[in-house]
Structure formats: C-alpha cells, structure tokens
C-alpha cells in the first residue's frame, strides 16, 4: 500500500455499499478512486476485490482464452503501473482495458477531449471525523479526466500549451478557491505533502516552467481533495501552507510563460490561503513574490506598493520576505528614476540579508539566497546607470534570472548608443538559455530591445543577426 492510501478495508466498504445500491463497476471504481487516494487503474482492481496476483492471473487467462499472446505482466509491473512509477506499453493498455471492461481514459492512462460531460459520475466527499465518507452523484466533477489530461501532457514527447490545458489550469485554481473555506487527513498524508512541497521548491529552480506547471496542477488536485472538508486547526494550517507554496509556484511559472491574467489569479489564490492561515511572514512572502509580476509587465508603482506591503507584514525580524521586499523595491525605484530611494532600499535589503541565518547549500524557490541578492543588486545598479562588469557563472541552478540581467544590460547599452554591443549581448543571452526555458518573458524582452534600435542602425550586422535569431525563436507557451 503506497503512502497516503486508505487501507483495503475502505475499498471493501465501498464494494458493500455498491452492492446494496446496485452500482455499476465503473461507479464503484470512481468511488474508491475518489476516497481511497489510489490511481484509477488500481481502483478498477479494488472495485472487483482482486489482489495484484489475482489480477495478473486474470489477465494471463484472458490473453490465453482470446488468443491475444503473452500478457507480459507481473505483480511488480502492475504495482509500478498502479502507483505511476511506470507506464504500460500501448499493447498492454489495450489488454488492461479488455480486462477491466474500460478504456484508456477510464484507466487514467489517456486524456479525454470529448465535449460532452460523459454522464453521471460518483463524487466522493470525506465525512467529519469519526464518520464514514458519503457519495453524491454529479455530472460536473471531472477531476479524474483533468488529471489524465495533465498526465498525458507530461508524457508527450514535446510540451505544448493549448487552450484546453490552460482552461484546466484555471479550473483547478477555481476549484481550489471554492474548497479553501471548507476534512479528515492523517499525519502520514500531511508529512508526505510537506515532503512533496519541499521537493517542488527544490526542483522548480532548474525545471522548465511548462512541465512543472502541469505537475503542480496534479499536486494541487490532491491538496484540494484533502481540503474538501474542514480539518483540525493544525492540519488545516499545514494544508494552507502547502496551498500557498504550490499556488505561488504556479503563479511564477505562468508569469514566465507570459500568461499574466492567470498568474495574477493564482497570486490571488495564494493570498486567500495565506490570509486564512494568518501567518504574517507567509503573507509577506506572497506580496513580495507577487511584486515580480507588475515589475516585468509594466506597472512599477504596483511593484513598489506590494514590496512595501511585504516589508510591513514581515516586521523587523530578518527573513526572506523582508529581504526580497526591500530588493524588489530597490530595483523598481531605480527603473522609475528615484535613485536615492533605490540606494536606500538596496542597502536595507543587504542589511536584512546580513542578519539572516546561513542558508546552507540547498537551493529552494522563495528562499532569498546570496545568489538572488546578487541578481537584485546587479539589476538595481544597471538601472542606476552604473557600469557593471558581470558574467554569469558557467553553471548553477538558475536559468532565467541571469538572462534577464544580461538583457537589462543590453537595454542600457542601446540607450547609451552602443547598439551593436547591445545586440551582441542580447544574442549571447538568448543562446545561453536552454530551449525549454526560453519562455515569453525572455523572448519578449529581447524583442523589445529591437524596438529601441534607431531606424538608421537596423542594417547593422549585429542587429540583423539578433533579428534573425528572434524570428526563429518561438517562446515556450
């Protein structure tokens, strides 16, 4: 039994209720999937009351009976498929569909792109502590199809953004907003969730935004399920903390992808969760992170407002939100031309960081590290018009931040009349960022440089080369 799953006794209770209510096997499967924390594939087996060994034997007998060749399945393989550690081959998916009288979508192994809602489904809602879960029939809950859609996107050979996927990203956020105010969850499930959130914060630093966004949606679906009923205060706080962190990661990924509308909405979800939790430092973190969105997309006054609100909430104690708020304020003020105020804010960020405890070597999203302080310091000095001799290191966990700094340098070179040097630097910046990180926030800022090139310099070699590179550069979206 995987961590976070209910015991087999829970599935037995559902089978008894299904028999009494004369449910179909598919309705029973949905009830077990929704309640017990198991995959759809495993829920099909549990709905029939089969052990893993019995399921493999049934599959082998089916293949022999219908002349379908060797099943090529084992207990270990079945467990791996059921717990999403491996994916069966297309031929095996067909055999499993025959075995469970289902299709790949209902097995959770493919996406469903039909426009109809697929008929009546079983929706499982956790009961209050000490009471059994109950079920309700609804036509609109398609969480399993949504999960299958994101799994399908992750398993594709090339990540792509589509209207359908973005609609499901938004629906995940809306569903999460609706359930924040309203569950019985074990300590083991909360420990697993804390570990998962920490892993996402670590992997986000180096992961491409689009596949990471899809993985976050899957995790948030699990969090929403756990939050569907009110928890004891301590459990509720841990769920809210996870919600804040995962929503912030989602907002940041959408910002990098250029979807400012959904990024703004996800920051709103993070604010709702952090305000509900009441932790001032967490509330400050949300505002400090949200300040990045208007900075990169044109509203510097809003960046300053959010940064100052973050510093006020963070209080006098040295912390990542306080340091980030001061650094974000400094960079925005410098771009606005308020140089004296920018230098004061930058000095405050450095003072706060000097008082913070040592960070160690673990790079985590939302931790204001020495590397992040360096990025903000250099960005502020560039906006102040100072000559900064800075070259990104040969390796490191960050992919997009160094490129944005180089593009800031290029923009100031153009304003100083050094057009060819600026275009050479911008071309270097674009070529050094991995293709999967070449998102809208990078490509659009590079294109903005060309709009600042004087008309008489458009035929310069460096300008033409940058134009050709950008013509071929399709941002990840």
UniProtKB/TrEMBL annotation:
Highest taxon, organism lineage: Bacteria
Name assigned to this protein: Transcriptional regulator
